[in-house]
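Case study.
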Amino acid sequence: MIGAVTAERSKQDRRLLRIPGTDGVIGWILCAPAAILLGLFMIVPLVAVSVLAFFGWDPLTQTDHAVGFANFSRILTSPDFRSAVLRTLEYTVLTVPVTLLLGLVIAVAVNNVRHGAMVWRTVFFLPVASTLAATSVAWRFMFYPHTGIIDQTIGRVLPVQGWLQSTDLAIVAVSIVGIWQALGTTIVIFLAGLSGVPRHLHDAAALDGATAWSRFWHVTWPALGPATVLALVIDTRDSLRVFDQVQVMTEGGPLGSTTTLSYLLWQRGIHYNDLGGGAVIDLVILLVVFAFIGIQLRTAGRRLNDGATR
Amino acid sequence: MTARTTRTRAAFRQIALHVVLAIAGILVLLPFLVMLRTALTPDDSIFRGTLGLHGLTVRHFLDAWNRAPWAHYYRNGLLAVAGIYIGQILTCLPAGYALARLRFRGSGTATWVILACLAMPTQIIALPVFLMISRVGWLDTLPALIVPFVTSAFGIFVFRQFILTIPQSLFDAARLDGVGPFGVVWRVVLPNVRPALAAFGVLSVMGHWNDLFWPSVVLRTQRAATVPYGIVDFASGEGGTDYGTQMAAAAIAAIPLVIALCFVQRQFVQGLAPSATAD
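After joint prediction, the assembly is written out as follows.
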């Protein structure tokens, strides 16, 4: 809204001030460096991926040559790929809702303490700042079978042991690290949203005798619309590119049970140098990203606008 | 209800909030505590399970430091994030200004293209950019880590949003003073977007310093290795089952940026939400 108003006003101002015909050229000159680089490292690669998917490396002639849909049929029917799709879904379902819920609860708590909010915010942001590759080494040690702190505590109460060696539990362990890392950003987003909640509405509701829960549900939650959408987008995007903790803790195993699409892409395309196959996986991820954006614009987008017009 | 009971209830509520936060906070800090405790404990008592800190040792830190070229990793990391950030300011700031304040053919489309680029994970562009970089012979060098990121759709977007909040009168005054468009970027935009520069800087530096994926794509040896690449190499190879040294190495890798972050945290939150009043 503010942007639109400013733009409208600046249009009027510019009519008085503008030197005719210069904005266009100057605008493009100012954008040129960014445009050229974005084109080279974003737009061209996006097109190139679709071309790569139709090429293969021939070890006999040492050349690239078109292979038609061979890469597609090879990758899309492979058990590796199907497993990776399921694992990505599993990781997303395990991490995103928990991160959003915990992030919201902690952000509301931090927002309501009278003293020490800054300290708490820093504490929860530490995992974001610390190198995930390094903290994953610590997590791997915590999940170490029998002697690790997880098996020494949870493992004594519940019948779960040796997480990283189990095809069922390894993905959960990797997800826990994912939640732990994503929480800080989510809290910051919710805190920014909470600081925009009108104070007088809260006070009015409190005077009317509304309980803390009903104040949250009727005042805070609706105003958090844009923040929730932003957090959802960022957390889901991050779940589509999980890499670090998988590389350190499990290297995709055991038996591929933590190989998500983003890890499979690296494994195929870079590690095994199968660029054509990697490009097919790339296109699938791209498709998921587009589908995801579409769904969000249809559902969550409404909530984004609801919150914004308030 | 008397004023006194209300006040008591409010105090209880505050205590309850801090207790909840403390429980969550301890769980969040647990990996750091385990990391430091293990790194500082002599080998024979690491698995004894006591949290007592008697008989601390720095031997693991000395071992870890001597076994890997950490200064080399830090240097590479610093050069990479500095190169990326400076490049991003030089390209994103003028573009952000043009998209926010100038009306020209294609500016609307450009804004949409940038929003679309924002949603793309790095994975999507990895393979073609890897090919490009290997063709120009940059594999295993610092430019391979820097050049693909010297502009950022997110940066352009953040600066555009922030520049929209600068009063138009500042731009008008500069124009009346006869300042050209490049002068405007340098003399009006730059001094007024400091909070956004800081916030975006924290995100950019943090993201690229910590990134493991891109180095894993374009690096093959230790030559241009950054800290995350180095720690993975350490933990998977040499570290073996020497947990104390591994944890010391992880601490050496993770702690410096954490300390740096504590200094810039306030600006970070303020700069990302210009409308938000930080406490």
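Observations recorded in class. DSSP finds 15 helices and two strands in chain A. The CA atoms of residues 277 and 305 of chain A lie 40 Å apart. We will return to this complex in the next lecture.
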